[in-house]
Design a protein that fits this description.
alpha/beta; 20 strands; globular; binds ligand NA7
Length: about 550
């Protein structure tokens, strides 16, 4: 598939990653600004996060008509999603459709992982090396590596002795995994684990779920889209484009402006019931104060806990599943298809790791303090070294030989999640400090990519060679990120990957910007309209 001339060493821009961010950045810089660009991608096809996430049940939790690029009217008219939430295979088909429509693959170097990126101050360029020892140089380096692309397999004693097979959901084999006649153990009950459990339980001989922290989940109510809805979306894409820009999370629904305290108990229950029936992330939008007020949040949390207790017939399982220690939506709220119902099957078991922790893995399976579980396959649905992991793994070295690992020893420091002090001409799409994972990603991505395009266009026209942020801007932005986060319940949750708390030893800093996309967009637009005076341009 690679048609890249490897003897061609010099580029204007190197973009790392061929997911939603990388593809659109290529369109913007190559086709709109006429720049000479190369995309470097580890996988053998486009897709980014969705290239790797092929686990059973993998499906986006944003509704399909919003999980789309909105930059091209033509594209919006040409592509038709089939289900309310797009599954992983359909998303890859979509991304291939985009890549073919805009003829992107000819500028993507597949099967190459960037293993180092070093800024050369004398030559004002980035020197990039791939795992195949191929070197390139470029004026700009743009990371489009995703926020959840660094799979985390916890270091559990004895894993290397396991004689069966084990897989991480974020690194799933391309040809799938058969669970037929297999005894499967799954560790992790985040958004991923909750999607995988029902599908694995359908196929496997037996499934044991190892749960550390009980989690909320709301039914997704996924379904095929009606022909009427497909037509509606194509006719009304301009309305949706505006709506997605306006809502705080870039989702196609408004957050209600009523407070929990505005309604009586019965009305509140009816509102939750209706939202539960409708399904999806909009459950979180039932009231305006669910993620800011502990008391308000408790009403939603209790509603879901009751639903779990009503649904799960095995009382022991119901107690383990509903013993949730954090506020609803304090962690990324999962949505599911038959998750709690699956615990009513007779081929499933649930282990509460809080009262019965894993002590080791041996050749036959998982040993907990109280029991041994014989297994043929272990599925790690254990999440990611989120947001910073993919960047730190790339061995990025800036000015004065400053390593990104050193610059971020105490946690990520960025201006707007877009630039890091000491790393000139490097832009980080959806980097830490940007709204990213708290939003519908393609909408956040389009905003970042277009801002970067406009900034580079400005530099080209004014003949600037370098752009760089400074420590003061990064510190002030870090304070803003903290301030807005502290107005919500999000930083109060233990083990949250928003804080980096799921990775042992990782500095705990609240990473995404919780102030909402419209506010963030305004900050970025003001900087652009002010000719990027907050940056040093030379
Ligand atoms: P998450 O949300 O980080 O969930 C990971 C799960 O794995 C969660 O239940 C963790 O328990 C559990 N986990 C992690 N490490 C361990 C160890 N060592 N032992 C037992 N259990 C463990 O990742 P997901 O892939 O589900 O979701 C990531 C995002 O992808 C999601 O929000 C969507 O945006 C898409 P914990 O809660 O930490 O106790």
């Amino acid at each position: 598939m690679n048609q890249i001339n490897l003897n061609n060493k010099e580029y204007d821009v190197i973009i790392v990653g061929a997911g939603f961010s990388g593809l659109y950045q290529l369109i913007c810089l190559r086709d709109q600004l006429g720049m000479n660009c190369l995309v470097v991608e580890t996988g053998d096809d486009v897709g980014g996060t969705w290239y790797w996430n092929r686990y059973p049940g993998a499906r986006c939790d944003t509704e399909s008509h919003a999980y789309s690029y909105y930059f091209s009217d033509e594209l919006l008219k040409e592509w038709t999603w089939s289900e309310r939430y797009p599954g992983h295979a359909e998303i890859r088909r979509y991304m291939n459709f985009v890549a073919d429509k805009f003829d992107l693959k000819k500028d993507i170097l597949f099967n190459h992982k960037v293993t180092s990126a070093q800024y050369n101050e004398d030559k004002i360029c980035w020197e990039i090396t791939t795992n195949n020892k191929i070197n390139f140089r470029s004026k700009f380096l743009i990371t489009a590596v995703g926020c959840l692309s660094n799979a985390n397999i916890p270091k559990i004693k004895g894993l290397e002795n396991f004689k069966g097979k084990y897989y991480h959901t974020g690194n799933w084999p391309k040809n799938g995994v058969s669970f037929v006649d297999k005894k499967v153990g799954q560790i992790g009950t985040g958004s991923t684990g909750i999607q995988a459990v029902p599908v694995i339980a359908e196929e496997a001989k037996h499934l044991t779920v190892f749960q550390r922290t009980a989690n909320y989940s709301v039914p997704a109510r996924n379904k095929p889209l009606t022909e009427n809805f497909k037509i509606h979306v194509k006719e009304r894409f301009k309305y949706y484009r505006e709506l997605l820009k306006k809502t705080p999370n870039g989702h196609p629904f408004e957050i209600s402006d009523r407070l929990v305290a505005d309604v009586q108990e019965q009305e509140m229950q009816e509102i939750y019931e209706k939202a539960w029936e409708k399904g999806g992330l909009q459950f979180r939008g039932s009231f305006s104060d669910l993620v800011t007020n502990v008391e308000a949040n408790k009403t939603a949390s209790d509603f879901i806990k009751n639903k779990i207790n009503e649904t799960v017939l095995n009382k022991k399982f119901a107690a383990i599943l509903s013993d949730i220690d954090h506020p609803y939506a304090g962690k990324r709220p999962p949505i599911d298809t038959n998750y709690f119902e699956t615990y009513n099957r007779d081929n499933i078991n649930l282990v509460d790791l809080r009262s019965n922790p894993i002590t080791q893995i041996d050749e036959k399976g998982i040993q907990t303090e109280k029991e041994h579980f014989d297994l043929d396959i272990i599925v790690f649905a254990t999440g990611y070294d989120a947001m910073t992991g993919p960047l730190l793994n790339m061995n990025i070295v800036g000015k004065n030989n400053l390593k990104l690992q050193e610059a971020w020893e105490e946690g990520p420091k960025t201006f707007l999640g877009l630039q890091v002090p000491g790393f000139p001409n490097m832009f980080t799409i959806t980097g830490p400090g940007s709204p990213s994972v708290l939003t519908n990603m393609p909408i956040a991505i389009e905003q970042h990519v277009e801002w970067i395009r406009d900034c580079i266009d400005f530099m080209n026209k004014k003949e600037y060679s370098t752009i760089e942020t400074d420590a003061k801007s990064a510190e002030e932005w870090g304070n803003e990120v903290n301030n807005v986060a502290n107005k919500t319940l999000l930083p109060t949750v233990k083990h949250s990957w928003y804080l980096g708390a799921n990775i042992p030893g990782k500095p705990q800093v609240f990473m995404p910007y919780a102030g909402g996309l419209p506010r963030y967009r305004d900050v970025c637009e003001n900087i652009k309209n002010n000719n990027y005076k907050e940056f040093s341009l030379n």
